[in-house]
Amino acid sequence: MARFDNEVVLVTGGAQGMGANHVRHLIAEGARVLFGDVAVADGEALAAELGENAKFVRLDVTDDQSWTDAVTAGEEAFGPFTALVNNAGVSGVTPWLTLSTDDFKRMIEINTVGTFIGIRSIVPSLKRSGRGGVIVNISSTAGIAPSAGTATYAASKWAVRGLTKVAALEFGHDNIRVVSVHPGFVETQMTAGVDLSILSGQPIPRLATKDEVSKLVLFLIVDATYSTGTEFIIDGGNTLGAAPLEMKD
Ligand code: NAD
Predict the structure, then answer these.
(1) pTM (two decimals)
(2) Packing angle between helix 17-28 and helix 40-50, nearest 10 degrees?
(3) In this model, does residue 156 exceed pLDDT 50?
C-alpha cells in the first residue's frame, strides 16, 4: 500500500512552481489530488500528464464561489478531502512610500484572504471524511523575520501564521491539524530575478529545491501527527540572523 493511498488532497496554486511539485509528489505517493489555479493552460497540461488521480479546476482563491465549486468537484471525483495545501500566493518587494493602497490590498487578498476562505471551505469536507484531516498553510520566512520593502508580503504571510494558530485551536477537536510552512528562497519563478549573492551568508548558501519543500509538506500531512498550530521553517538557516564570522586557524 502506498503512503498516500487514503488521502484526497486539494492543492491551490498547483499549476506551477512549488504547488505543481507538491501535486507531482502526492500523485507519485498514491494520493488523489484536486488542484486549482488561475493559470488554466498550465493546470490542464499537468492534469493530462498525471492521469486519472489528478484533476484540475480553475480556482481563484479570492473568490468564495470558486472555492465552493472546487470542493464540490473534488468530492464528486474522489470523495471527501483529507488534506488542503493552501499554497497559492504572490510576492513583491516595493519601498513603503511607493506602495499603493490597491497593491497592498491585492496581495493581502490573495495570500491571506485566500487562505482564510480555503480553511472555511475545506473544513466541512474534512469532517465528512469521518477522520478529520490536515491543513498546510504556505507562509514564508517573511512571516517570521522582517526585511525592508516587504510591507504587504510580510503582513500577508505573518497573517497566514496567525490564521494557522486560530484554526488549530478551533478545529483541533474535529481531529483537524493545521500547520504553517515557512520557506526561505526556493528555485521557482518567484525567485528568478533574485541576486543569489544575498544567500552567501546563509549557513546553507543556496536556493532550496522544490523537492525539499514538497518532502516537508508531505511529511506534515501524514507523519507529523502530534504537531498542530506551529511553524515549520525550511530556509537554509536564513532566519538565524547575522552571517557567521569567518573562522580562522
Ligand atoms: P509561483 O509563482 O511559481 O506559483 C504560485 C502559483 O499561485 C501560480 O501558479 C499562480 O498562478 C498561482 N496563483 C496566483 N494567484 C492566484 C489566485 N488568486 N488563485 C489561485 N492561484 C493563484 O510561486 P512559488 O514560488 O511556487 O510560490 C508558492 C507559495 O510559496 C506562495 O504562497 C509563495 O508566497 C510561497 N513562498 C515562495 C518562496 C520562494 O522562494 N519561491 C519562498 C517563500 C514562500
Answers:
(1) 0.97
(2) 20
(3) yes
